[in-house]
Design goal:
heterodimer; A: alpha/beta; B: alpha/beta; 7-stranded mixed sheet; 3-stranded antiparallel sheet; 31% helix; 9% strand
């Protein structure tokens, strides 16, 4: 067995030192009823590296990779080019095989990286402080709702109808158990986000208003009026962003008055990976809210010789110290994904992120213009960044997506998959375009979509 | 300062006034291969980038609705060579399993096989979208199903939820299923019992799910007090959460009896599976009466810890709970294809407590974990547990003569050996011993956990260490222990040879500096 260094001689010597006759002597405390008499029969025996690789490759080959087809899926996960050096860095064993930096003197690599990451995220979001990351955007969204409850001592969250439905489902799942009231809604299929409708649902018991920016339909909302309306009622504005590249082109949520900004960081450095692991981002605009934040925080300090160094800090908020009184039960962060984000964002820098955002938007505009020309297809959005909603003139978008896949085109995400069976949403198709999309891809999608719809 | 000690160890370093050892200070602050590295904000520029993208065309169509970001974001960039060097230099200030022995108890720092990394990067796994049409991702759904099947067979449990993102998220999944099951029969139980030796995530999870948490004491031999549990069991108890093997490194002998007693009052048994690596392939938790248990793929099944995550925490369920599992689930259909069931109220999952996360779980960890399982097979996984337990007992019996081992007489340990700081001289603490181990080239064991032992030191060697490696560690550990017993004051300032000396955590918390602040422009 290639991963097990002990030899039979070692094992015998060690048993002798321990004073045991056989390995079974070390398992005497396991009741007989639970002792197996040998390897589990329903499972295969060990296999060589070559055999295992063949087994796994056979499964990988059954999937159509995004890079092997014209590809237009988004809805919370985006395909971007990740520079080769990102993977080189995250595969360094000193990062890959390190643990949580509980011994900071020998974990400065991870800690300094986290400090840089927190700094990048807080700037991107227009906030004062970001944490060292959460599991993903959807769980970060729930944590923001829970935090707003702690800050305002209220227990009602108002969700925008255009919040990613998986995110609102996560919030509703958790609220069943915490007793919070969640006021949610279905997305209004209209050109502009329904801010007036959202504002009308804020009351004096509201802890927070949760809005996605750009929203699930790709629309861009004026957060300032939402922030003002929330603050007037003593509520916090929580803004969710699922496409960080957008913030290289559009105003940050923080500068428009958001109190807590959370999101999915997958676009920068992490890759699609069928939905995970991803990277939850979490930031607060006002530093006074730091002590109510969930998750790990890295802070600057000095060592005994006065040199600058970094440590995990304010951990009295966390479960390993506070146990049942912690701000969250979260234990891990998404460390290696945070590193990938940190490296990719460093490669981009201000200039690169702005150029990346501009290129996404340029291609999205080309795609929107081209697809809108197809008979029966209309563009919903007045404004968008790199994702927009098409209406297919009454044709069920879910079927259209399947037919496009049969023609080798991954053409988008149907709203019906996200909101099954909701009347009025069946013919809506979300189309995402990034720098990896070519004009040829757009033309292929247009032709095939026209074919499917005719 | 060179206090004598029994091992004959003599600190040789001379600390000069400027804090450097064995030589003059350097201009750069570097010491040969020990290299200082600034923050990106100190070396990068807003105009510098390491990617080649088209210049922005100011006349290009703009449909951003007037929300253009005009103010500087405040990011800095580096070119690729600068970036690679920056992170390479940072990496060298980190300790990892690849570098050396990493006996962090309860964290299971075993070797991360590189085949796993290779497989996870196959484009058919790494470059597929979670909402891709199901016909285009059959192989990915098959992997999720296959891994779930392995987990059920290894644990002897009939249900599995694959979406939890990490161990604590898995705990939440299990507790929510328990709560949903009680609610389904109109039973509003309020209390979860948690042993005092539990991981902090257990009480935090139960509280997060709206339960009142009550502590259960440990017996003097380091196990859950069966009589205390029995005495407390009543119809208000929703569940017990027990780690088995427990955080003292012992198997809970009475687990089956506890489970039966809990079931008798209508409660459920949550098992924290953080330490499943000690019994994998040899013992099935399902045979012990477990109703729900999370499995840390990053512990037992070797997916990398990555400096603190990402984890992955699938949960296995008993017959009583499996219908309450979260969505989505992957089902195998009659025609041997795979279906992702995402929707509530349809198909067979009417009682699911709902969705815990966007999409379907940590696919990148699933591919790695399944690769690991296939590599080991049923026989290899059994050997994993046996070697892990053998190594831990070898450490325990090689140190118990000089180090306080509170549960040395409680029978064999499982995958980790627990020690305390009794009899340390000169006011020295576990912390000092840990920092001295750093100077010896080791990552310290887990310290001050579990809370039931004073100055706890939890040593988990794992099965991927050779006997030679463990022997060398034992020698080093004995030497620092002898110094601690002798009250060697030099230990109070350790580490001496790490990239940083002891860091001031109080200062960090008192005046938090959590993000880079640009210096004021000089006048």
């Amino acid at each position: 067995m290639r991963y097990l260094p002990l030899t039979d001689t070692d094992r015998a010597d060690m048993l002798a030192k321990i004073g045991a006759n056989s390995i079974d002597d070390l398992f005497v405390d396991v009741p007989a009823v639970a002792q197996l008499d040998g390897p589990i029969r329903e499972l295969p025996m060990h296999a060589s590296e070559m055999t295992v690789e063949r087994h796994m490759k056979a499964r990988a080959n059954k999937n159509l990779a995004a890079g092997d087809a014209p590809f237009f899926l988004g809805a919370g996960a985006y395909r971007h080019h990740v520079p080769a050096s990102v993977d080189t860095v995250i595969q360094r064993g000193e990062f890959l095989t390190a643990y949580t930096p509980y011994q900071p003197e020998i974990a400065q690599g991870t800690l300094q990286m986290l400090f840089e990451f927190q700094s990048q995220v807080s700037r991107l979001y227009g906030c004062a402080v970001a944490n060292a990351s959460m599991y993903d955007g959807s769980t970060a969204c729930w944590e923001a709702v829970a935090m707003a409850g702690r800050v305002t001592r209220r227990h009602r969250a108002v969700l925008s109808g255009a919040l990613h439905p998986h995110y609102s489902q996560v919030v509703k799942t958790m609220a069943q158990f915490t007793g919070d009231t969640i006021a949610d809604a279905m997305p209004a299929i209209q050109t502009e986000p329904d801010n007036a409708g959202l504002i009308s649902r804020i009351d004096d018991d509201t802890a927070c208003v949760v809005v996605q920016y750009p929203d699930i339909l790709g629309r861009i909302s004026d957060l300032t009026e939402l922030a003002d309306a929330a603050h007037a009622k003593g509520a916090l504005l929580v803004v969710v962003n699922t496409e960080p590249v957008a913030l290289g082109a559009i105003k940050s949520p923080g500068e428009m008055g958001a109190d807590i900004v959370v999101g999915e960081g997958q676009s920068i450095g992490v890759g699609l990976q069928f939905g995970g692991p991803y990277l939850g981002l979490f930031a607060v605009r006002d530093p006074k809210h730091v002590r109510q934040m969930p998750g790990r925080l890295c802070g600057e300090t000095t060592d005994a010789e006065g040199k600058r160094g970094f440590v995990l800090t304010l951990s009295t908020r966390e479960q390993h110290i506070r146990r049942e009184k912690a701000t969250s039960n979260i234990c891990t962060n998404s460390g290696l994904c945070a590193l990938a984000f940190n490296v990719h964002m460093t490669l981009l820098g201000e200039k690169g992120l702005r150029e990346l955002a501009a290129e996404n938007h340029r291609l999205a505009c080309i795609a929107a213009d081209r697809l809108e020309q197809i008979p029966g297809v209309s563009l919903l959005n007045s404004a968008f960044f790199n994702e927009f909603t098409l209406q297919l003139g009454g044709k069920p978008a879910r079927d259209v997506v399947r037919s496009l896949a049969d023609r080798g085109v991954l053409g988008g995400v149907s709203l019906d998959r996200l909101y099954p069976g909701v009347a009025g949403l069946e013919d809506a198709l979300l189309v995402a375009v990034t720098e990896t999309t070519t004009e040829e891809d757009i033309e292929t999608l247009a032709k095939e979509l026209e074919g499917v719809l005719s | 300062m060179n206090a004598p000690n029994k091992s004959g160890w003599k600190p040789e370093m001379q600390v000069s006034e400027d804090g450097l050892h064995n030589g003059p200070s350097t201009t750069t602050g570097n010491r040969a291969l020990m290299l200082e590295e600034p923050l990106i904000f100190e070396i990068g520029h807003a105009e510098t980038t390491g990617v080649d993208l088209p210049e922005i065309d100011p006349d290009a169509p703009n449909r951003l609705g007037g929300f253009d970001r005009s103010d500087p974001i405040g990011l800095v960039g580096l070119t690729e060579p600068e970036t690679v060097r920056h992170y390479t230099r940072l990496s060298r200030q980190n300790y990892g399993i690849d570098l050396g022995f990493f006996p962090l108890g309860s964290c299971t720092m075993k070797h991360n096989p590189r085949l796993n990394e290779k497989v996870a990067r196959l484009p058919g796994f790494a470059d597929i979208h979670p909402l891709a049409p199901q016909q285009s991702v059959q192989g990915a759904l098959q992997v999720i199903h296959e891994l779930g099947d392995w987990l059920m067979k290894l644990t002897g449990m009939p249900g599995v939820a694959m979406s939890p993102k990490a161990g604590a998220h898995g705990e939440l999944c299990g507790i929510l299923a328990i709560r949903a099951a009680h609610t389904a029969r109109g039973d509003a139980r309020q209390v979860v019992l948690v042993p005092e030796s539990a991981h902090g995530t257990n009480p935090a999870t139960a509280a997060f799910a709206g339960y009142k948490v009550e502590d259960i004491p440990a017996t003097p031999e380091g196990r859950v007090d069966l009589e205390a549990i029995k005495a407390r069991l009543a119809p208000d108890v929703a569940a017990v959460m027990i780690t088995n093997p427990n955080t003292c490194g012992l198997f809970e002998k009475d687990f089956r009896e506890i489970a039966d007693a809990v079931h008798a009052v209508g409660g459920y048994v949550y098992c924290d599976g953080a330490n499943f690596n000690a019994i994998v392939g040899r013992v099935r938790p399902g045979d012990l009466g477990v109703d729900a248990m999370h499995i840390n793929l990053h512990k037992t099944f070797s997916t990398p810890h990555g400096g603190g995550g990402p984890g992955s925490g699938p949960v296995v369920f008993s017959e009583a709970l499996k219908d309450f599992a979260p969505l989505p689930v992957v089902r195998k259909t009659a025609d041997d294809s795979y279906e992702l069931v995402e929707e509530e109220g349809r198909k067979h999952r009417g009682q699911s407590f709902g969705r815990m996360t966007a999409f379907h779980g940590q696919m990148g960890m699933f591919t790695r974990a399944l690769t690991y399982m296939l590599s080991h097979g049923a026989d290899g996984l059994k050997q994993v547990a046996e070697d892990a337990v053998l190594n831990a007992n070898y450490v325990l019996r090689s140190l118990e003569d000089i180090l306080h081992a509170p549960f040395a007489d409680s029978g064999p340990c499982m995958h980790e050996a627990l020690f305390g700081d009794k009899d340390f001289g000169g006011g020295l603490s576990t912390q000092d011993l840990a920092k001295a181990l750093i100077d010896e080239g080791y990552h310290p064991m887990t310290v001050y956990f579990p809370l039931v032992v004073h100055g706890a030191m939890l040593v988990e060697p794992t099965e991927t260490e050779s006997k030679a490696s463990i022997d060398q560690f034992i020698t080093a550990f004995r030497s620092v222990t002898e110094r601690a017993l002798a009250g060697d004051e030099t230990m109070k300032q350790a580490p001496y040879y790490a990239p940083r000396r002891r860091l001031d955590e109080t200062q960090a918390a008192r005046k938090p500096k959590l993000a880079w602040q640009d210096p004021e422009p000089s006048a």
